[in-house]
Amino acid sequence: MPDVSVVVIVYNDADRLPTAVQSVLDQTLRDVEVVIVDDCSTDRSFEVAQRLAADHPERVRAFQLPENSGGCGEPRNAGIQRTRGRYVMFLDSDDVLEVNACRNMLEAAEKTGSDIVSGLCVRMHRDTRNQKRDEWYSWLYSTTRTVDSVTELPDLFVWDTLSTNKCYRRDFLIEHNLRFAKGLFYEDLLFIAEAYLVAERITLIPNQVYFWNVHTQGAVKSVSNRRHEMTNYIHRLEVHKRIDAMLAERGLTDIKRAKDVKFLKHDLVLHLRDLPFRDDSYRQEFSERSREYLESIAPEAYERVQPIQAICTYLLQQGDWDHLIPAVDTLINRDKISSPLTEHDGRIYWCDGYFDDAFGRRMLDVTDIGYHEKPVNQLFLRNQLTRFSSSGRAVSLTGRITNPLGVIPPGTRLKGQLEFSARRRSLQSFHFPVHELRHEGDAIHWEAAADLTAKLRPLGIVDTIWDVRLRLDVDGVRTTTRLTVADTGLSGPLPVRPRLTRMVADHLEPHVSAKGHLAFRLVSEGQSAERVQELITRGVRGKPGTLAKTGYRKAKALRKKVTSGDNKLRAYHEVFCRLPVKKRTVVFESHLGKQYSDSPRALYEEMRRQGLDFEAIWSYAGSPKDFPKDATLVKRWSLPYLKALAQAEFWVDNQSYPLKLTKRPETTYLQTWHGSALKNMGFDLPALKAQTRQQQAEQQRSLDRFDRFLVRSEHDVHTLARAFRLKEKTLLRVGYPRNDALVQARQREAEQGVRERGPLAAELGIPEDRTVLLYAPTFRKAGGRHGRFELPFDVERFADQFGDRYVLLVRSHYLNHVVLPPTVQGRVIDVSARHDVTPLLELADGLITDYSSVMFDYALLDRPLVFFTYDYDEYVHEGRGTYFDLLEHAPGPVVRTEEDFHETIKSFESQALEYAQSRKEFVARFGEYDRGDAARSIVDQFFAQWSR
């Protein structure tokens, strides 16, 4: 009796069958048999199978069904009946097994006694240029694990629905009469669902076992590539209904709910993507069949999918094709806004017409996505191609650009041009003017003509695909759109003259890209062109082409290797660090290059004020906008950045330069740090304590680069300095340069007896009679339906209750992002995008925070503070821990509920006196060295000799 029987099914696949069978014969586990089942092929498949059986009589047997079954189920069922092994696996004729698959799975089955052993499947995209590969839900297979029931691991049931990457105990299959459904597509889903549910033990191994070859361009399409056929969708729904019945019979509501989420996120989406290209009759039947099944899906499942997925599903249920088809465009192109949007009762909705339906309002509410906050240059707008015609040499195009919420108001100056660009980057592009642009309802209508034959001159061969974009200029601000085709008809090809002569290609043919956009491709229509194309193809695939492609790939790989992290580190240490240090050169960085802010900024500006003669270099991550124009700007982790650090006489930052960069002895590192510590830091963190000695040593080496570390109190000495294991000589007791402005503001108020708000209030549009509150929480992991940090209180309720007296500024942590509804405009203002928090602190009449170190800075102003610690127990006791009890030492009221928070705001004015002594004691303990002269003191100590 063999250890493992592998059932190989085949239909009209004579050429690939031997490779599949050979992958079984080559297994490192020798006691494996092959059972080939031919589904009554019309080609030579069964002859090939018989020959393989004849060549390997002890290991291969071949059978043929009397008539074609039309699916994979019946051949596999026949194979199960004919297997002789203790374990059974399934293999398709166009796929292969990993060479150790049978051995690894058998060992796991024998060791655990499992009914099913499942391993990692790898999809190989054979038609792609780079042979793309992706691992099938690899997170399930990160480690070996065994479960006694699939209910212990619902994700396995929901996501890994393949039958082929598994090894089954044969007695288990026979005992439970496990068979594939007859005459149904997606029989895998039904088979494996039942197998999972009856299995008494399942083992997952982290080994690759199955290579699934994906051929999207084959003459005969697989089931997964024939989604446009209605039968395909009908079968998918039928399979899901049967699985739902199994789950209902067993009372497995949690798995059913998780499966519902997967259906909305995955199964339905696969078919929705094709709807723009289907006719009305198909859409109507699709909607009717979907509506019936969607009624069985729990409403809470909609809350666990992406907003656009829920929007499309809801509109599908309503049969609202006018809004659904554009929504599918956003489903395919996630950043695109394909609806004009509408505002209702202070909320932003995908479309109108459903405000009387509470569920519909919830599904269509896109306020939290933040579309209404973005300027036109940050929006990817849908551009629907409404007419396409070609005449001889030119094409005429007409379209409509979505204008969400009137972001492009009437009266704006509009200019546009069509850009035809080769898909391969760094190749040529051609431009044609848009001769008409005008407002038309909730869209921008445009018309253009392009004489492609005369002006577009492709090279040929290397630039066969051309994408089309419309670049729209709105009062000098540019946004770029792609031309969505949907159901607009495209006419025939146009003659073209490639630079490599018409023997390469002679026409340019319009087509629809994978994401639904207009594109053109070079084609050959003449006989000579076809002959040349054949020769080129043969050359590309032959030895010369192979050598050329190999050279190109090596060059590309070398470029990637040179710019990789490891090689950048080598360049830094072995090349740049051998260059001489440049005197009077300072590299500044704030918050890992994300901001021009904090103490590095304050120190830099003090050096400029004193007119020092030095070269300033600022690091930036992302956009260099808002960084100083009188400094050299270098992108973080770029080669110029590394070269600047290697040659700098001083490093100044508030967090850390890349940990693996060794500082040269000639360079002085001034670490200003970014705040006193409430939360545990450094080696006081449990995670760092648990590291190996080697890991801790590497961490310590990065900290030992600090030549000077700024502290603002002895509290910093006992917490930060100790946690970073810094030596006493490293500490610089001068305070934070960023806080000089706050101390000086407090001194001016005391001397003059009045406060001056300065220009920032007017810039933000804050009325003079409003009290300004600043809400500045610490970092939170993003959550919620939209994946963003959600405010812990109802901001609309706050604005309605207090908006006549207060303006609330919201400043999220620089790693977080918040979105405010339009109803609070003018009463609640998002100031998170401003680099530097210090001017906001100086403006605010009061601070609302939680555990952020901004509390230590704001206390210097001697103004009221409120601590909204809604998750105190979780944050303090279950998180990283704190150095002191905030409840005991907070210089202001600590509240945990929204109701208490509102009550505290109502009595805000009285807190100035009530907590005056607490604030004084707080500053004495945590800000004793902040005297308003930190920047000047540091300049005097380190840079005074640089005076001009």
Please summarize what this structure is.
The protein is of the alpha/beta class.
Give structural notes.
With 948 residues, the chain is α/β, with parallel strands linked by helices. It has 34 helices and 37 strands. Helix 8 (230-250) runs parallel beside helix 10 (280-294) and helix 12 runs antiparallel to helix 13 (321-332).
Key terms:
single chain, 948 residues, alpha/beta, ten-stranded mixed beta sheet, seven-stranded mixed beta barrel, 34 helices, 35% helix, globular
What structural class do you assign from the helix and strand content? alpha/beta
Rounded to an integer, what's the Rg over CA atoms?
Answer: 34 Å
Helical residue percent band: 25-40%
Shape: globular
How many strand elements? 37
Count the DSSP helices. Answer: 34
Strand content range: 15-25%
Task: Walk me through the topology.
Blueprint: E1 4-10, H1 17-25, E2 32-38, H2 45-55, E3 60-64, H3 73-82, E4 87-92, E5 96-97, H4 101-112, E6 116-125, E7 133-135, E8 145-147, H5 154-159, E9 166-169, H6 170-175, H7 187-198, E10 202-214, H8 230-250, H9 253-272, H10 280-294, H11 299-302, H12 307-318, H13 321-332, E11 336-337, E12 342-344, E13 347-349, H14 358-364, E14 380-381, E15 383-391, E16 394-402, E17 414-422, E18 429-440, E19 443-451, H15 452-455, E20 465-474, E21 477-484, E22 494-495, E23 507-512, E24 518-523, H16 527-541, H17 543-562, H18 565-575, E25 582-589, H19 598-609, E26 615-620, E27 632-635, H20 639-647, E28 648-653, E29 668-671, H21 686-689, H22 693-703, E30 708-711, H23 714-723, E31 731-733, H24 740-752, H25 759-763, E32 771-775, H26 795-802, E33 806-810, E34 828-830, H27 838-843, E35 846-849, H28 854-858, E36 865-868, H29 872-878, H30 886-889, E37 894-895, H31 898-906, H32 911-914, H33 916-926, H34 934-942
Parallel strand pairs: 1-2, 1-4, 2-3, 6-10, 11-14, 15-21, 25-26, 25-28, 26-27, 28-29, 29-30, 30-31, 32-33, 32-35, 33-34, 35-36, 36-37
Antiparallel strand pairs: 4-9, 5-10, 6-7, 6-9, 8-10, 12-13, 15-16, 16-19, 17-18, 17-20, 18-19, 20-21, 20-24, 22-23, 23-24
Helix pairs in contact: 7-8, 8-9, 8-10, 9-12, 10-12, 12-13, 16-17, 18-20, 19-34
